[in-house]
Specification:
With 508 residues, this protein is α/β, with parallel strands linked by helices. Helices cover 43% and strands 13% of the residues. The strands form six sheets. The protein has a five-stranded parallel beta sheet with strand order 4-7-10-1-11, covered by helices on one side. The chain has a three-stranded antiparallel beta sheet with strand order 14-16-15. A two-stranded antiparallel sheet has the order 2-3. Helix 13 (264-274) packs across helix 15 and helix 14 packs across helix 15. The longest helix is centred in the middle third of the chain and has 21 residues, at 317-337.
Length: 508
Amino acid sequence: MDYQKLTGHQLLQIKTLGQLKASGYQPKSIKEELRDNLIKKIKAKENVFEGIWGYEDTVIPDIERAILSRHNINLLGLRGQAKTRIARMMTHLLDEYVPVVYGSELNDDPLHPLSTFAKDQIEEKGDDTPIIWWHREDRYTEKLATPDVSVADLIGDVDPIKAATMKLSYNDERVIHYGLVPRSHRCIFVINELPDLQARIQVALFNILQEGDIQIRGFKLRLPLEIQFVFTANPEDYTNRGSIVTPLKDRIESQIITHYPKSIEIGKKITAQEANLAGKPVEQIHVPELMKDLIEQIAIEARGSEFVDEKSGVSARLTISAYENLISAAERRLYLNGESNTVVRIADLIGVIPAITGKVELVYEGEQEGAGLVAYNLIGKAIRTQFVNYFPSPEQKKKDKNGNPYVIPLAWFGEGNELDILASQSDKEYKTLLHSVPGLEEVVTQMVKNLPEKEKEFFMEFALHGLAEYSQLSKKLLDTGLQFKDLFSSMFDMGAGDEEDDFDEDDN
């Protein structure tokens, strides 16, 4: 019988040690298992890390090299860079089923037992020793490193209750209650945020990583545990909350640096894949590609902002949450107005501010500005960046001999006219307001190539936001939306309102 050719269903029919031996089964370490299955997938041109975008030429080749080298791995990167997700997907490289001695705490291989229990079972029952089959999805253990994690949690401790119940001496190995690490024998074991683990707890991992033995309350156990360790860490932790002790870093053979998406296109793929839109009327809400670009651009602006702590990073969860909020803003408007369909608006970005404020770590200057204002400014910068991809720069067109295409709509605002775009406005009212601005439609139809008819008003509003970001118009945040007006008249209004304050300041 060729064990390698047996299907999962056939393996589950094997119930005893004798039947297992007859199948031709040979013990294999977890690192060999990962390595062999990775080689098969590489040869078959299969993608191991399905759904991980942007790492095809950087992180994933590093991980594959580490697995081929039988290395333990440390994934080093800022928040929201799919470190834990990658670790979880490594289970796809495990064999579908592996045999385990029935009732064993340490998931003993029937042909290579470690625990006293498994050895006693095999000695007593021989080929009749019962075995069970362990699925690869169950061979994954994850522990979040927190300051309160103890050696007993990870390695184990003597259990006085077990000793009393079983009437055992404290010299008997059976009084040991094993921790998470020994119980993860033949598993992928992930420790998230490794620097948060106290130094003395990190020291307890030395022997497991190097020599393969553990010590529990005076018991020196030679347990050659087969574990694929994957650690995750944030570079910020090395300086702020803790650090990985040097000897432990030395024992982790491969340290792989992760990164954020390097392009808007990759970011959009991640957001579209991860956003939870279940139950939402997505068929009734049209989202222009520009809006998807703007959502990703907000994260890019945040990562380069002087108000955001760059060492902390800006998670990919920001764009995912922002996109969900964007759809919800349009969905709410559908229900308020009893409409059957709608197109998202630039004004809907105000609804994504709550998704931004909790995802960015502000520096001192950012705290002074306030999280809400920083988020609002990030949206403005994203609009400014994307604006010139569709429209000519208003600053350059001022000096253009061929004339300024924005002169007619700007003149309309200069005559004292205002425009209020409200979050709950019906589509009919929204369109009527935008078309009331002379020359605005002409600017959009001339400048935007291949403009779909249903996106016309979206781009008209985008043009107003862009002009405001380039200081051609005034844009004011209202309780329920946005107001556009002439820049100079708004400056005079502000000056009149602040005149008394200016006098007070001079007096002081």
